[in-house]
Inverse folding.
């Protein structure tokens, strides 16, 4: 059974940085198409970044140039480096994965494995 565990969330001031981690177990991460999503209460979950097994990454326009997704397959871990954080980046961040080729890496529906989330709070 595939499990995803996020960590690295916290509280920072505007302009600061955080690095989120998503540790996968139950399967080799190199087989997984993975993504980062975020969601605030009362809002839909939105895609932030996608990372496929071929090394291609996709980003939402709102985070391009500030966020970087990377993976360390030896550690079975996906990362999200978040720089120049803004108060509007405040959300619960989730890691997601699927073993199926994913043509829509920023959409929720292709993913069938999800982590429990980690909170990111950015103060002005």
């Amino acid at each position: 059974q595939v499990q995803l565990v996020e960590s690295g969330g916290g509280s920072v001031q505007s302009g600061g940085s955080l690095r989120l981690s998503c540790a996968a177990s139950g399967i080799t991460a190199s087989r997984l198409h993975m993504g980062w999503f975020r969601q605030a209460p009362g809002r839909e979950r939105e895609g932030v970044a996608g990372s496929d097994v071929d090394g291609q990454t996709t980003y939402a326009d709102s985070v391009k140039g500030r966020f970087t997704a990377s993976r360390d397959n030896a550690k079975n871990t996906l990362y999200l480096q978040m720089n120049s954080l803004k108060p509007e980046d405040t959300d619960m961040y989730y890691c997601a994965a699927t073993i199926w080729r994913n043509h829509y890496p920023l959409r929720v529906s292709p993913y069938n494995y999800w982590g429990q989330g980690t909170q990111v709070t950015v103060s002005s």
Notes: The mean pLDDT is 95. The chain has no helices and eleven strands. The two ends are 40 Å apart (CA to CA). The first strand starts at residue 3 and ends at 7.
